[in-house]
Amino acid sequence: MGRLDGKVAIITGAAKGLGEADARIFAREGATVIMTDVDEAAGQAIADEIGATFVKQDVRSEDGWKALIDDVVKTHGGLNVLVNNAGVVEVGTPESQTYEDYKFIMEVSADGTFLGCKYAIPAMRESGGGSIINMASIASVQGEPYVAAYCAAKGAIEALSRSVAVYCAKGKMNIRCNSIHPSGIVTPMVISMGEKVATAGLGSLEDQGEGAGTSKLGEPNDIANTVLFLASDESKFISGAQIRVDNAMSVVTGTVPE
Ligand SMILES: NC(=O)c1ccc[n+]([C@@H]2O[C@H](COP(=O)([O-])OP(=O)(O)OC[C@H]3O[C@@H](n4cnc5c(N)ncnc54)[C@H](O)[C@@H]3O)[C@@H](O)[C@H]2O)c1
Q: Domains (ranges, CATH) in the chain?
């Protein structure tokens, strides 16, 4: 018996990195998995391999969200889990980050998560309840100097997640919402960010506090196992939480990385 048997789940940004790891674990645990991403080729290949459905989606499009949720409910009879995982990062300090990059990062991460919550809530309510899992970051807890816009976007996601949790609790909707806050996990995003930080002369990720404790960088399944727990009914009493998955990095280095 799978831990997600009978659940219909959408995972955004599922073509690689953490979203791919979520999709693989969700499929193994019995969920009906709908993977979405802008990268159609990579997403479709993984979906074919694990028996999931792939839908091309840019999370910035409101019409795209409406169509996706309508289609999932019509095809699969409801919606139980949404993982708002898609996100982007561009290196920039509060002085050097361009406004264009700031807007792009906010649109994909913060606006995309808002739209996902907005359209998932009524579908989950109709389905008898659900779990929304929003990928924030340790960047919303610590003041990371070299990814200013990313910090802002993740702060917005953290605060939105609390709002969604309280709104759904007060409405007795049986919908939970939590944010996950990873430190550095080895994915295409972190590998490319490490290169960009070094190229910009901002030091290394580890200098900036991206990793501490006994293990400096995590693996995608360190996060995917947490996502699985929040998606399953095992976490039925957890909502409105900010769950740090960072091997104590934020505790070791405090609120402002050295
Ligand atoms: N890897 C880490 O160390 C880390 C740490 C903290 C938080 N996070 C967060 O976890 C999430 C996943 O990160 P990752 O490391 O797997 O990143 P990644 O770059 O490896 O993968 C992200 C995926 O999102 C997709 N995507 C990008 N823009 C999109 C859009 N507009 N619409 C739909 N899909 C889009 C990409 O195509 C890609 O497949 C992100 O929200 C990221 O901010 C990652």
A: 8-252 (3.40.50.720)
